[in-house]
Amino acid sequence: MPEHRIGSREEWQAAREELARLEAEQARRDEEIKAKRLDLPWVPVDKEYELGTGDGKRTLAELFDGRSQLLAYNIMFGPDYTLGACPGCTGLADGLDGTLVHLNHRDVTLICLSRAPIERLTAYKQRMGWQFPYVSTYGTDFAFDFGLAMTEEQAQQIPEVTEMTDNPPGWLEEWSHQIGAELKDGLRENPSWIAFALEDGTVYHTYTVAAPDPFVAPYFSSLLDRTPKAQPAEPRSWRKDEYPD
């Protein structure tokens, strides 16, 4: 017998209707939050950045690629990572290629960012079979200016980071081995989504959201939320070519 509660069809229907009411409330709240998100003020980006791409250096404005909106996912892949990007971030990135044509036809350019040098990003992109543009912020202040990474000094001033570095749980120690970097370096990267608008030649920063927000999670996580069994509480992840089976 399953360990889960067993009931009749009538009991299921009553419980499902109650859950539906809660889901409808959440949907209404999500619409309110969406409106607040769209109402955020746009902040002009006055600083010039030259970022690394497979086709050489590009300015932030050039990354829009002829469109007026730029959406970027910041993958945890710092200069100190010797074995590749964060497996969890990699899992999210695995789901992006299918969205490219749909976003491009809606005036949105989608890219990913990381602080590792472009040569390493290009090699990792090829390994993972990705098609989206993968851009390096290496050697610039871009990631620090927009909260996508922390300096060593900033990381040392955050109690949660120092606690995880000094007393890491088992899954985090495993993650450190997966990326090939010490935790004091690996945890300085901030998995985030960041959005920009381009109007009349001016780039504006419009939005940022970072983990642990559910939006900064692999897309398959939302599918797992609808399956019958709960997933393990510890956030272990593997790259798609490294599953231990």
Structure summary:
The two termini are 27 Å apart. The chain has helices spanning 9-38, 87-93, 100-104, 118-128, 142-145, 152-156, 159-166, 170-179, 183-186, 220-224; strands at 43-44, 50-53, 56-59, 69-74, 108-114, 134-136, 192-199, 202-210. It is an alpha/beta fold and 245 residues long.
Can you give keywords for this protein?
single chain, 245 residues, alpha/beta, Glutaredoxin, 6-stranded mixed β-sheet, two-stranded antiparallel sheet, globular
Shape: globular
Low-confidence stretches: none
- Total count of strands: 8
| Percent helix | 25-40%
Question: Pairing-aware structural class of the strands and helices?
Answer: alpha/beta
Strand order of the largest sheet: 1-8-7-4-5-6
Secondary-structure element series: HEEEEHHEHEHHHHHEEH
CATH superfamily of the domain at 43-149 and 189-220: Glutaredoxin
Counting copies of identical and different chains, the oligomeric state is: single chain
Q: Which value, in Å, is the CA radius of gyration?
A: 20 Å
Please report which band the strand proportion falls in: under 5%, 5-15%, 15-25%, 25-35%, 35-45% or over 45%: 15-25%
**Spatial separation of the terminal alpha carbons:** 27 Å
Secondary structure tally, helices: 10
Q: Report the major sheet.
A: 6 strands, mixed
Can you give the mean pLDDT? 94
Q: Assign the CATH topology of the domain at 43-149 and 189-220.
A: Glutaredoxin
